[in-house]
């Protein structure tokens, strides 16, 4: 029984669907896991960062999934048990946001108070439950179609009660360790989602926006201090880009160490302003110079009356902008404060303070005693971002009215500016373009807002632990390896160094409720860490109570007795739920319901051997994992991490369904195959944490440039192997039992072994970005060099032994390549592999029901084999130079040339090329190849300093010595330098690597001998391009043969299909054509035979007619 014939016209997508059916039929994934358990393989732990199932998978998901699949497949093939369990992120804003959109379409309010009163938390959460797995089937289908092996049946969901219970346990451990506290802080706040966000989330979505920039006046009140400074009646000039915060203004702030000026307007002396000296240009900008005209002397527009340090302004009072909170004047408000955070790079150096809408404002006002941490707040904005009733008074100025209550704050900006401008309190306003944080879920602008939240304390000790776990030590050791490393050592290190307390509470509904029960007066706090503890303490529950759900609608009504006795009201749960990032960070414990179950399995799987997600998770999942792990266990949560960049649309914009700026992933897979999509994604900058502009043409190119040549080589093998009933004899490792002595056979096997060893080394280091390019290069070496150069041998045109040797070699290499490619592109390698091993005995170790059940090869090349790889590389280098030279002079490869001269300054490289000169002749179609020991007269070597190598040596004046010395070197001097390995230039010793050795060609002299040259740093090749009559006849013969082969291909013939060839035309060497075709060539058409095709070959004025007939 021979190999199954390979269809020439098949699509890769069709192949892949056949493989998917086979995997399903044979339960290959389950079988692989079963065997790993039976063999008691060591555990390799992988954590899957869970996606939300409220949207369909996109290319970013496919990329991350592909990386995860490659690595986990690889380690499974390396003898590990790799548990691959899919996870779903089912809580939080992404889910609630979808429900809020539905509620808004129903004409109802999504304000939290309205959801509670009109919809009810139970109904709201049920709606969330109903949609949370909306696209789970599509996810499973897409993930499987992409070739990813992962367990969907035993998945975990963050809404599972077991998962939520472990989250409670994690929180209780942190609480008991003193890492949890409640405090009022100014936090990033999403008005659309009506909840605070963490600083981590606020950094996820910055966008360029235009906001109003306003210069306001704050008239200075009479006081002894103002009089002493001479600024009574003057005006502070403030600046803001958030006019909606001006009604909440309580103070101004200046920098005590910087200089401020009292200036007077010359045109209107009644205008006197106090402003930072270096920012006077904001009020009186220098006029722009007109093009081509000299700058005219300027009349001064202001005069400086006095200067003083900012500290001198401390305590100076001013007139408030609005009448809303004037009772706060008793606490020292509406005065000048001093703090170093005020800078001189923008604004006026006088900063408006709204302490409950700005983090620095809050800190400064708290430090100066204007507000108290547990006191009343000037925060007239509700959770939807609208002004509340504390600013309900409608203000009037003339005919102008200002009404704020019930309106969205940013929508009020224009009217606030207009109202202040009418009162003369605005000097100027304009639009200011800057980068501004947006809600990562709703994509609406965030505001800063003060409110009580629950925090994880990132104290110095925890921060130091995290920094240590993230560091790369001097000896190269580390707790975590990030690929690429710069993300770890720069971006993530910087984030950790500046880490602040983590707000883990959200004022929402659909999430894991915070397990905190608190007394009415806030003095008694109890944290629940399990369902058993919940039953123990809650008055409404007994030991027999089933606690199958612990969402808000199930636990909000539960109370526990106040430990101080029955005289105190029962303790109730705080209303907040956990930030879903806290759930994600708890995932290592919660996915296994630790510590309530699976303790041994947890210890085996923590920390993870590997995780992978996008660059945007640097401040997200990667950070939360580390915070919790460092706090609970003082351990890194994972050992190895691959970070991918973002997949953007072809125009560089974010992929958007509404813009339709990217092709549907499943359509791309249907057209080009999942293997092509996978290889396109992972052979791109995106695996180095850079961005990729997705282009479907790139996927198509991978299919045509990588998989099509490989498929054709495989098909060519099967065709020729079946002609002679070829059955390979392979060792247990899959190598030929009787290795060939042929140079190229030995070379491709050696190159294959080198590739396999390289792949193991790089995959062990998680460097996919080096592995895949090398794999693609090898496929090119196999298809465009080895197979092409050995086609005649495989067809049996040289000898039967040569045919067996070449087929055995190609078969072994294809089998090894299938195994090596299996983790990366799982479909085609499996399809090819099953056919390639079908003729082997069933008991052969290399024969399995799927390539994915094999171990990854442990082969490596010997020193002798690596030397052969270098030898052939030099030959290929020469061939490439020769091909480029033919293109440059316009002489096609079908035209034979008389002579080629090759020279190199390396004796080793010259020896390599001399050994393979016959291959050079065949590849470049030259009759003679010369490798003279003495260089041609038209060639010399020159030397130039390699400044890139020399710059680190800081040679100073010595660099000129090197430059001058290189310029004086003769050809013979350079040859001696290369032999010695170093040279001295007047006391400065340099190595060969620090000097660029290049060829110089005397073109007139070379061309006078009919020679045209081309070179690179290692070789110079020269071709005699004179084409005489004999060479022209030979060229015609080769072109006629090529025409015949083209007709055979067009007629879809296989090598075993016999044809009659008829050639007619002027004088040509039909004897040579006969030899090349290995069959008789006719000059007249045979009678009564089917014509399969015909063509014409035009050479100058001569026309040749070529036809083939079924024999």
How is the main sheet built? Answer: 6 strands, mixed
Query: Overall 3D geometry?
Result: globular
- How many distinct helices? 37
The unreliable regions are: none
Number of strands: 42
Secondary structure class reads alpha+beta
Summarize the amount of helix as a percent range.
25-40%
What gap, in angstroms, lies between the N and C termini? 28 Å
Rg (C-alpha, Å): 39 Å
Q: What is the strand content?
A: 15-25%
Report the average pLDDT across residues.
88
The side-by-side strand order for the widest beta sheet comes to 12-10-11-8-7-17
GO molecular function, one term: tRNA binding
Domain Aminoacyl-tRNA synthetase class Ia: 19-692
Keywords: Aminoacyl-tRNA synthetase, ATP-binding, Ligase, Nucleotide-binding, Protein biosynthesis
EC number: 6.1.1.5
């Amino acid at each position: 029984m021979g190999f199954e014939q390979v269809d020439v016209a098949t699509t890769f997508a069709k192949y892949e669907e056949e493989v998917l059916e086979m995997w399903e039929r044979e339960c290959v994934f389950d079988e692989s896991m079963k065997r790993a358990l039976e063999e008691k393989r060591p555990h390799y732990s992988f954590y899957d960062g869970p996606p939300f199932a409220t949207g369909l998978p996109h290319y970013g998901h496919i990329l991350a999934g592909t990386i995860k699949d490659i690595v986990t497949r690889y380690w499974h093939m390396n003898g590990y048990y790799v548990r691959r369990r899919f996870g779903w992120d089912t809580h939080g804003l992404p889910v609630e946001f979808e429900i809020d959109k539905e509620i808004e379409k129903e004409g109802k309010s999504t304000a939290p108070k309205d959801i509670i009163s009109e919809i009810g938390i139970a109904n709201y959460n049920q709606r969330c439950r109903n949609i949370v797995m909306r696209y789970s089937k599509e996810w499973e289908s897409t993930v499987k179609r992409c070739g990813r092996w992962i367990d969907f049946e035993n998945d975990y969901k963050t809404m599972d009660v077991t998962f939520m219970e472990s989250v409670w346990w994690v929180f209780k451990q942190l609480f008991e360790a003193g890492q949890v506290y409640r405090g009022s802080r100014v936090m990033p706040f999403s008005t659309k989602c009506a909840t605070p966000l963490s600083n981590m989330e606020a950094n996820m979505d910055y966008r360029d926006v235009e906001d109003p920039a306003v210069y306001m006046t704050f008239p200075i009140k009479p006081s002894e201090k103002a009089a002493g400074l001479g600024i009574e009646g003057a005006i502070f000039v403030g600046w803001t880009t958030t006019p909606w915060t001006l009604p909440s203004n309580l103070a101004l702030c200046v920098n005590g160490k910087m200089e401020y000026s009292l200036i007077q307007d010359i045109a209107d002396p009644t205008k006197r302003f106090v402003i930072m000296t270096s920012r006077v240009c904001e009020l009186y900008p220098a006029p722009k110079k007109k093009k081509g005209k000299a700058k005219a002397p300027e009349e001064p527009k202001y005069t400086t009356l006095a200067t003083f340090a900012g500290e001198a302004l401390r305590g100076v009072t001013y007139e408030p902008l609005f009448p809303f909170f004037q009772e706060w004047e008793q606490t020292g408000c509406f005065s000048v404060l001093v703090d170093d955070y005020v800078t001189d790079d923008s604004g006026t150096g006088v900063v408006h303070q709204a302490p409950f809408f700005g983090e620095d404002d809050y800190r400064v006002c708290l430090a100066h005693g204007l507000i108290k941490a547990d006191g009343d707040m000037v925060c007239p904005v509700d959770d939807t971002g609208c002004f509340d009733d504390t600013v309900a008074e409608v203000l009037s100025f003339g005919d102008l009215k200002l009404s704020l209550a019930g309106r969205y704050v940013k929508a009020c900006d224009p009217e606030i500016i207009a109202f202040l401008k009418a009162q003369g309190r605005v000097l100027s306003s304009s639009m200011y373009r800057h980068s501004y944080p947006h809600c990562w879920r709703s994509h609406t602008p965030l505001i800063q807002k003060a409110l009580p939240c629950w925090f994880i304390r990132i104290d110095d000790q925890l921060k130091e632990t995290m920094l240590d776990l993230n560091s790369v030590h001097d000896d190269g050791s580390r707790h975590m390896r990030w690929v690429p490393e710069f993300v770890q050592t720069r971006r993530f290190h910087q984030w950790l160094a500046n880490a602040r307390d983590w707000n883990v509470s959200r004022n929402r509904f659909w999430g894991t409720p915070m397990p905190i029960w608190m007394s009415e007066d806030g003095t008694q706090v109890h944290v629940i860490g399990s369902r058993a503890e919940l039953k123990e303490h809650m008055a409404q529950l007994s030991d027999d109570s089933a606690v199958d759900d612990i969402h808000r609608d199930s636990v909000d009504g539960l109370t526990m007795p106040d430990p101080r006795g029955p005289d105190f009201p029962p303790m109730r749960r705080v209303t907040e739920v956990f930030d879903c990032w806290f759930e994600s960070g708890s995932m290592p414990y919660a996915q296994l319901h630790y510590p309530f179950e699976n303790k041994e399995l947890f210890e085996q799987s923590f920390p993870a051997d590997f995780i992978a997600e996008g660059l945007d998770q640097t401040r997200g999942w990667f950070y939360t994992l580390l915070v919790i792990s460092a706090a609970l266990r003082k351990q890194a949560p994972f050992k190895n991490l691959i970070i991918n960049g973002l997949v953007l649309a072809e125009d560089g914009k974010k992929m958007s369904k509404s813009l339709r700026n990217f092709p549907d992933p499943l359509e791309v897979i249907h057209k080009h195959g999942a293997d092509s999509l996978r290889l396109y994604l992972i052979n791109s900058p995106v695996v180095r944490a850079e961005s990729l502009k997705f282009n479907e043409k790139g996927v198509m190119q991978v299919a045509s440039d990588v998989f099509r040549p490989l498929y054709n080589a495989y098909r060519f093998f099967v065709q020729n192997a079946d002609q002679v009933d070829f059955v390979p004899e392979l060792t247990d490792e899959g190598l030929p039992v009787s290795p060939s002595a042929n140079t190229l056979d030995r070379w491709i096997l050696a190159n294959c072994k080198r590739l396999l060893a390289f792949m193991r080394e790089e995959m062990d280091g998680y460097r996919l970005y080096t592995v895949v390019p090398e794999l693609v290069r090898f496929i090119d070496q196999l298809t465009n060099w080895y197979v092409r150069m050995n086609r005649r041998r495989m067809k049996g045109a040289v000898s039967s032994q040569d045919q067996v040797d070449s087929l055995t070699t190609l078969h072994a290499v294809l089998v090894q390549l299938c195994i090596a490619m299996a983790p990366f592109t799982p479909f085609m390698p499996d399809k090819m592999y099953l056919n390639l091993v079908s003729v082997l005995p069933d008991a052969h170790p290399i024969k399995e029901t799927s390539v994915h059940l094999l171990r990854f090869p442990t082969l490596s090349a010997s020193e002798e084999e690596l030397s052969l790889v270098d030898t052939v590389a030099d030959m290929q280098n020469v061939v490439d130079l020769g091909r480029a030279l033919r293109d440059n002079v316009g002489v096609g490869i079908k035209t034979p040339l008389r002579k080629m001269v090759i020279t190199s300054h390396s004796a080793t490289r010259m020896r390599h090329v001399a050994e393979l000169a016959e291959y050079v002749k065949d590849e470049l179609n030259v009759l003679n190849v010369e490798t003279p020991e003495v260089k041609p007269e038209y060639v010399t070597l020159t030397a130039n300093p390699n400044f890139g190598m020399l710059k680190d040596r800081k040679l100073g004046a010595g660099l000129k010595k090197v430059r001058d010395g290189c310029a004086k070197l003769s050809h013979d001097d350079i040859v001696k330098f290369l032999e010695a390995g170093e040279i001295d230039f007047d006391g400065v010793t340099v190595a060969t690597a620090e000097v660029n050795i290049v060829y110089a060609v005397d073109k007139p002299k070379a061309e006078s001998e009919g020679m045209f040259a081309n070179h690179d740093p290692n070789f110079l090749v020269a071709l005699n391009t004179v084409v005489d009559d004999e060479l022209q006849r030979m060229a015609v013969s080769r072109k006629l043969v090529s025409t015949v082969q083209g007709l055979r291909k067009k007629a879809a013939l296989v090598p075993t299909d016999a044809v009659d060839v008829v050639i007619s035309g002027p004088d040509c060497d039909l004897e040579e054509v006969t030899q090349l075709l290995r069959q008789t060539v006719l000059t007249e058409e045979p009678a009564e035979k089917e014509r399969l095709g015909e063509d014409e070959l035009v050479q100058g004025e001569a026309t040749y007619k070529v036809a083939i007939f079924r024999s």
